[in-house]
Amino acid sequence: MKTITVAKGDGIGPEIMDATLSIILAAGAALKIEEIEVGEKVYLAGNSAGISADSWDIIRKNKIFLKAPITTPQGGGYKSLNVTTRKFLGLYSNVRPCRSLHPFVSTKHPVMDIVIIRENEEDLYAGIEHQQTDEVVQCLKLISRPGCEKIIRYAFEYAKQQNRKKVTCFTKDNIMKQTDGLFHKVFDEIASEYPEIENEHWIIDIGAAKMADTPEAFDVIVMPNLYGDVLSDVAAQITGSVGLAGSANIGEDCAMFEAIHGSAPRRAGQDVANPSGLLQGAIMMLNHIGQTAVAEKVQNAWLKTLEDGIHTYDIYKEGISKQKVGTKAFAEAVIANLGKLPSIFKPVSYANNEALSLPKYKRKPAAEKTLEGVDLFVHWNGHDANELAKLLNNIFNDGIQLSMITNRGIKVWPDGFQETFCTDHWRCRFKPKEGVQMSKTAIPLLLVAANENGIDVIKTENLYAFDGKQAYSLGQGQ
């Protein structure tokens, strides 16, 4: 018997959760359920996170969280409970199977069967943003080695467990050579440990186009957070319906399972909602906790129900569907099919599925780190980079010199183009003169000199080499 935490959520949430629980319990799931309240009522009661401290304690105690969709009120500084839960509980892996249900759900891709595994904690979703000048704001893209290693190893272990043949990596490392470059590098390192699984890398733009056009070319796809967020919804939609997809959020200690759709408040209380998305999340949960026989029974019964043409309104289609049913009746039909196998869809088998056993991240020995310069980010309302260079060249001369100015990443000094449009946000790179070793003590002296000369420095970034390898970007055009 496994104790899990359940939240019925908002809108259609209570209806689809009741339907989902009725199915998996009828199938023999050995579960004890502890229910908590999260979502709109908690938000409006004054809790900006949508969840109480007591509820957090219950989730952390039970480790497994099955959550229905919730409504986040507009305005008022309310935080996304999904994002908060993923980060607080270290749920680093988002897993989204996207499988075609042709011919019962319309799709242009009848043989599509892919799984998108998305890094869930970092990237631009760290949410670190600042306005720096009148015209420019920034969002920091944070990619860590442990974040890369954990999600990429999970993707290969998942492929191994599910008997999938290939893992594909999507990045944009032709442009973001440090951040996406690290993700790609770690992918290549870990792929070499799984010679039995084919691996490949695609640049995200052409990879996304290929996935939308020919999804059958892919099997498991792993990628950083933002790309994965976008493409997992695209993948779910081109299978025929976002409303049929479930999602798993896996961490080293805890896991959360859910549907990927929202709470659909306009459909609440009408007994029409399709519980399939949440049911798919629950099947992933059963596999995760080792109740694979129950998961297999439920999935095959669900496929048999779709084959029987018993459909909710969202997928009902004249000539293909045989009976339009509501939420409760659909659940009853799945329960009636427990123990039966589909005949058109390939029956699933989870008999060999064992819980994934992933090693804890081990920090590698520190590299030799050498300071090679500093970038000063300057708020300056002029337009001519040559004028700014003159100002900066005159403020400091203690073995350090201005080597480059960029604007939005484009080199504008020296040898910039007059046609390049510039904002009021300038990256000004200072490096030591030949034969001089850069010292950290020079940086505050440089900042003092800039301030004394009326230069508005809004941010600095130290430039390092790690084990002798340059670890910072140049300006485009350099």
Pick out its properties:
single chain, 478 residues, Isopropylmalate Dehydrogenase, Alpha-Beta Plaits, ten-stranded mixed β-sheet, 23% strand, elongated
Describe the structure.
This protein is of the alpha/beta class. It has 3 domains: 201 residues, Isopropylmalate Dehydrogenase; 132 residues, 3-Layer(aba) Sandwich (Isopropylmalate Dehydrogenase); 102 residues, Alpha-Beta Plaits, CATH 3.30.70. Helix content is 32%, strand content 23%. It is built from 13 helices and 20 strands. A 10-stranded mixed sheet has the order 2-1-3-12-11-4-5-10-8-9, sandwiched between helices. Strands 17-16-18-15-19-20 form a 6-stranded antiparallel sheet, with helices on both faces. β16 and β17 form a beta hairpin. The model has no long low-confidence stretch (mean pLDDT 93).
Mean pLDDT: 93
Largest sheet: 10 strands, mixed
Number of strands: 20
Low-confidence runs: none
How large is the radius of gyration? 27 Å
Percent helix range: 25-40%
Shape: elongated
| CATH homologous superfamily assignment of the largest domain | Isopropylmalate Dehydrogenase
Strand order of the largest sheet: 2-1-3-12-11-4-5-10-8-9
CATH architecture of the largest domain: 3-Layer(aba) Sandwich
Count the domains.
Answer: 3
Head-to-tail CA distance between termini: 63 Å
Task: Using the coordinates shown, work out and report the CATH topology of the largest domain.
Answer: Isopropylmalate Dehydrogenase
* Helix-and-strand structural type: alpha/beta
Query: Quick one: CATH class of the largest domain?
Result: Alpha Beta
Beta-strand residue percentage: 15-25%
The DSSP helix count reads 13
